Amino acid sequence: MTWLSLSLLSFMALMTLIIFEARWVFPDIQAYFSQSGNLTGQQLATRSRHYLQNAQERLLDVPGPEARAQAITDIELAYGLFDVDIYHQRYACTAASLGVLDETLAALEADSALPVVLARELFNPINCLTEIEMGQLDQRGEVITEFADRTGWHHQVLIYSSVLIFFVGLLFWWLHERQLRRAEKATQETLTWMERAMQDPLTGIGNRSALHQDVMQQQSQSLGLVLVDIDFFKQYNDAMGHPAGDTLLRQLAQLIANALTDEATLYRLGGDEFAALLPCEDAATLEAYCQKLHRQVQQSEFTHVAHPDKKQVTLSIGATCFVASESGFASAYAAADKALYQVKTSGRDNWRIIDVA
User: Fold this and answer.
1) For an engineered disulfide with 322, which of 14, 146, 305, 332 has Cβ 3.0 to 4.6 Å away?
2) Where are the bilayer-spanning segments (predicted)?
3) Rounded CA separation 12/6 (Å)
């Protein structure tokens, strides 16, 4: 037996008591208590407004990709609570406000507008939700007043009993809401944990698990896998220290990400090894990417005082094209790793593409 069930049973008992006591003399009494659903409607509007206000705060206070992603989540949650049939029927501002939310979500996902501009656009939907909340409260107030006028002193005992059951029901409902908030918090914490579990903590890009998951989500598609290794990274750490090595990893992650195509994704597999996943219809696409990445690293001229041959950081790159599947990914990884090994054994600072066996 849940708190929600107890709350609903309380309201059912309240309705039964009213029907029995009034002996159907006052049918409007039933109409009054049928408005109990408005409590839920009012809470939907309130919670939707809170989500939109949270999105505004995120866009204004903490600009950045993470804040934008959280704002998108808040707006989507608010949209689901806002898009209710009764709101469309009774409140003219609903459709226009949902349209604003659609445009705001599109702008956030495309990162095509300033956060402060998007935050300002949310004021109209928030005002609409406030109007809905007030309308719900006004409707309840009118029905309660009409009920009180019709029943009068003749139903004092009924009123006392109803108030008692009503507040018991509200207590159960409050307990249900508290339990629901705890569940939502636990769900959010789980989602946050899952997101962190798929990220490399040093560079903020995806990790090996994220790479495998992304491949499995693109079954039967032609993809390119690129493995990147920093030449003589151990010597760099020994000479410059691990903090400098961490800084270099972050800088190279940014450089590799900038060299990626718009549809490609970067991952850190551990140590000084990175991987990139991108659409690959033919080897020419992969070759162009490897050449661009190799050229940009050479132009960046990151200092490497411990490099045996040069005074700047260099990369070894191995790549292959494959068709996404569990076995296809395993074969592709082996082929790209083989290409990387051949580059390393032939002097490093180069790239090579090998076809999947």
Assistant:
1) 332
2) 6-26, 157-175
3) 10
Is residue 324 a contact partner of residue 216, using CB atoms and an 8 Å limit?
Answer: yes
Closest listed residue to residue 244, CA positions, set 317, 308, 314, 306: 306
Residue 327 neighbours by CB distance under 10 Å: 9
Q: Residue 225: what are its φ and ψ, rounded to 5°?
A: -115, 125
Percentage of residues in the chain with pLDDT exceeding 70?
A: 84
Is 50 exceeded by the pLDDT of residue 37? no
Name the 3-class secondary structure at 54: helix
3-state secondary structure of 91: coil
Which residue matches tokens 């934008």?
Answer: 68
Number of neighbours of residue 137 by Cβ within 10 angstroms: 12
CA distance 263 to 58: 27
Any idea what the Cα angle at residue 293 is, between residues 271 and 203, rounded to 5°? Answer: 35
Top CATH class of 208-353 equals: alpha beta
**Residue 151 CB burial class (10 angstroms; 0-12, 13-18, ≥19):** buried
Note whether 81 and 51 are within 8 A (CB).
yes
Give the confidence band of 319 by pLDDT, cuts at 50, 70, 90: very high
pLDDT tens for each residue of 165-218: 777 777 777 877 888 788 888 777 766 666 666 788 888 888 988 999 899 999
CATH 1.20.120.660 for domain 3-195:
yes
pLDDT at 333: 93
How far apart are alpha carbons 3 and 28 in whole angstroms? 29
Q: Give the Cα separation of 82 and 97 in Å (integer).
A: 9
The strand pairing partners of 199, in sequence order, are: 206
138-147, 161-170, 235-244 — which one is most confidently predicted on average? 235-244
Over residues 77-90, the pLDDT tens digits come to 999 888 888 889 88
